[in-house]
Every structure is written in C-alpha cells, then in structure tokens.
Amino acid sequence: MFDKVLIANRGEIALRVLRACKELGIATVAVHSTADSEAMHVKLADEAVCIGPPPARDSYLNVSQLLAACEITGADAVHPGYGFLSENARFAEILDDHGIVFIGPKAEHIRIMGDKIAAKQTAKRLGIPVVPGSDGGVSEDGEALRIAREIGFPVIIKAAAGGGGRGMKVALNEDEMSVALSTARSEAKAAFGDDAVYIEKYLQKPRHIEVQVIGDGRGKAVHLGERDCSLQRRHQKVWEEAPSPALNASERERIGSTVAKAMADLGYLGVGTVEFLYEDGEFYFIEMNTRIQVEHPVTEMITDIDLVNEQIRIAGGAELSFTQDDVKLNGHAIECRINAENAATFRPSPGKITQWHVPGGLGVRVDSHAYQGYTIPPYYDSLAGKLIVHGKTRTECLMRLRRALDEFVVDGIETTLPLFRTLVRNPDMQDGRYDIHWLEKQLADGLMDD
Ligand code: ADP
C-alpha cells in the first residue's frame, strides 16, 4: 500500500479522496492554486504545496508542477479525482515513467475510452450494446446519407473528437442531412481541430443510465448496479439516483452482468462507469468514464462499499475485497448537486459564504468542501457540495430529501437549493417519470419562474 498520496484536484473531490486516505492510514499531500490556499482539503492534508496561479492550465493541469510537488514531498501515488488530468493517458504514463502510481486505470484503457469511435468499437467487440450507426468516421455525404437511410431518421451527427456535448447535430430527415453534416464538421473543426464525424440513430426520449464497475486489472470485475442521471440541463447532470426508477430487476441484472463481463475481458483496472441511453427496454452505449464520478456516493449508499477506498487499494496492488455475490443493493439513494448558481438562470454566483448550515440525521450525507466564511472562487466549476440521502425505499428517500433540503441554509451566495425544493415536490419526479429532456422542457415552461 502507498505511504503518501498526492491529491491532484480541488473542491469536494479532493476532500473525498483525503478522507479515504486518512481511513487507510495513508499520508496526504494537497496541491492548490493561489486561489485555493484557504480550501478545506489544504487545511486537512498532512502537507500542502502551492502549484501555481488560479487558471487551471497553470496549476491543476500543470504536469511539471505536479511532478515537482511529488518529488518535494516524496508522494508515491497520485489520485487525480475527476475532471482536470483524471482522463489524461499521457499524465498516467508520465507518472509511471517517474515511478509514481497513477490511481486509475491502465493508460491504454484511458486512451481507448477517450476516443469516441475507438470506445464504441471496443464496447461492441466486448458485447456491450451500442447505438446503431456508422462503424467509424464518415467522410462522404453520400455515405452519410446511405447510413442514415439504413438506420432510419432521425439521426445525430457527432464529432469523433467530441466532448462536453459539443459538435452534435440532429437531422430529422433527408433534407436536413447536408446542413447538419457541414455544421457538425465545422463545429468539430473549430472546437477540437478535427472535423471527423460519425452518425448514430437519434433516440428521442431516452433516460441516461450508467453502470458502476470495478476491476482488478487481472480479469476480475464486479458491477455495483446502475445510477439514473436522466435529470440534466445542457447535458450536465443535476440529480442522480440509484437504483433507476425505470429498470426492473432482470434488466438491472442483464446490463450489469454484461458490463462486468466486458470489463473482466478487457482487464480493466480500478473504478469506471459505462454510460448508456435507455429507451423502450433497450440499452445503448454512449461512453465510458475511466475515473471516479461526481455521483459515485449514491452507489456507495446503496452498496455500503467505499469506492474511493477500493480504488486506492486496487491501484496499490490489492485484490478486490468483495465478489459479485457480496454486492447487495439496499434501499434507494438520491444526490442533488448544490451549485453556486442562481436556481432559475443558472448564472454562477461565486463569493463568500456567510452562513452554511447542513442538514443531518439518519441517511443524510453532505460531501462538501464549503464552510462558513469560505469564499467560492470564480475560476473553477460551481459545485459547492452534494446532498446525498438514503432511504429504505424511494418514497422514504424522497421524504427524507424533502426535509433535508428544507434544513439546508446557505447565505452569501446563490445556490441551486430552490430548484431541488421544487423538484422534490414535483409529481413527475415523485413518480420517477422523467427522461433526459424533462428538466429543460419544465424550465422552458416556467418551472422556476416567480
Ligand atoms: P459528450 O462526450 O460530448 O458529452 P455523449 O456521447 O456522451 O457526448 O453524449 C452527450 C449527450 O448527448 C447524451 O447524454 C445525450 O443527452 C445526447 N446524445 C448523445 N447521443 C445521442 C443519441 N444517439 N440519441 C439521443 N441523444 C444523444
């Protein structure tokens, strides 16, 4: 096991990793930009190193500064958290060249899953169901039209180098094809410097369902059920829950075991998430995230498995501490992302938190780096914390969430708490009847007006 882990991240995930290290008896090194010197993870870590000015490219993404921090402190492993360098295969290789362990998957798997076309081809080869579409990039308009006719309209044209929902265009019929193709290509070129695109069937009312997996890198892999992250705004997840209110036990078992077998065959190491769109009883692979995710706590709450602890142990060469049969899903969990944003306009609201009172009681967890007097800097994402609630049933979970949200007090900045207080009282949400477009439609229809 490691003696000292450097946490190459900030915010709530840096704190989350720090907590896991402390419980494993591992010393911690925090790194921070000059904007984060008052951050909670910096205060709680055994050592802290300032790695640069506020812009992420000069600090949290600055590989040579991170290497220097490892050298100075003698850290033997780096936990990248999510975002920043967490899915950067080159970073994993550079650490390896310096004899430092990257707490994450093998670089080759990060690389494959980071390339949308290679990821889809790999998923297909491993028996994971994918969205019908072109086998690879499509360069000729004629070929694009032929494929679109074959799979049927509507279709979506996506940038091969895509990410963050950019470079995607829907064509509802043949007439829209040539404009959609040329816009997608020029957007892809502008955003990613690569105009390669591919085509998929466009699903009209899917849910976003993702399967959590963990592998030992030596041919064993276990799934921990699914999360439903259909509640989204601009392709950003807002509310996540486990299990999905839309799946039955046999669908859960089918997709879970398919993913676990695929990851075992791949020799996948560490934690990962395979994301699907789900419509009319069918699953369609969209991408795999080769890192810990923001929404991992809902899985922890229903499995009682500490995913970050497992991730660190496995990177240190340990065996998986449990088998598939040991994984028992218990009750229901919901996570709300409390962002420092206006709840109606979603305009960021950085600044000083003058009051911070978090809810408590049975089944209530708050993962946050915020505290009274802390100033949320304007340079990074707006996640101020996550409220995670567990109950024996979805109904109990919703009632508990409602009272926890009512207890939560944050002053000095605006947050998305009012949005969640509205959502938890909404009949569609209470019935679990929502797809990936539901929230945007509701917002357009005035959900948060007045
Ligand atoms: P990115 O990497 O840019 O986030 P993804 O492939 O993960 O791109 O897709 C992002 C989102 O776009 C999905 O969560 C979904 O909302 C939508 N989307 C992607 N592919 C399809 C599809 N074939 N049909 C319908 N919606 C899609």
Provide key terms for this protein.
binds adenosine-5'-diphosphate; 450 residues; 34% helix; 5-stranded parallel sheet; alpha+beta; 15 helices
How would you portray this structure in words?
This protein is α+β, with helices and mostly antiparallel strands. Helix content is 34%, strand content 26%. It is built from 15 helices and 20 strands. The strands form five sheets. Strands 13-12-9-10-11-14-19-17 form an eight-stranded antiparallel β-sheet, sandwiched between helices. Strands 3-2-1-4-5 form a five-stranded parallel β-sheet. Helix 4 packs antiparallel against helix 5 and helix 7 crosses helix 8. Bound molecules: adenosine-5'-diphosphate.
Instruction: Output the number of helix runs.
Output: 15
Global geometry: globular
How many E strands? 20
**Uncertain stretches of 5 or more adjacent residues:** none
Structural class of the helix and strand makeup? alpha+beta
Helix content range: 25-40%
Largest sheet: 8 strands, antiparallel
- With strands numbered from the N-terminus, the spatial order across the biggest sheet is 13-12-9-10-11-14-19-17
Instruction: Give the N-terminus to C-terminus distance in angstroms.
Output: 54 Å
Approximately what portion of the residues adopt beta-strand conformation?
A: 25-35%
Report the mean per-residue pLDDT as an integer. Answer: 96
Bound chemical compounds: adenosine-5'-diphosphate
Assembly type of the chains comes to single chain
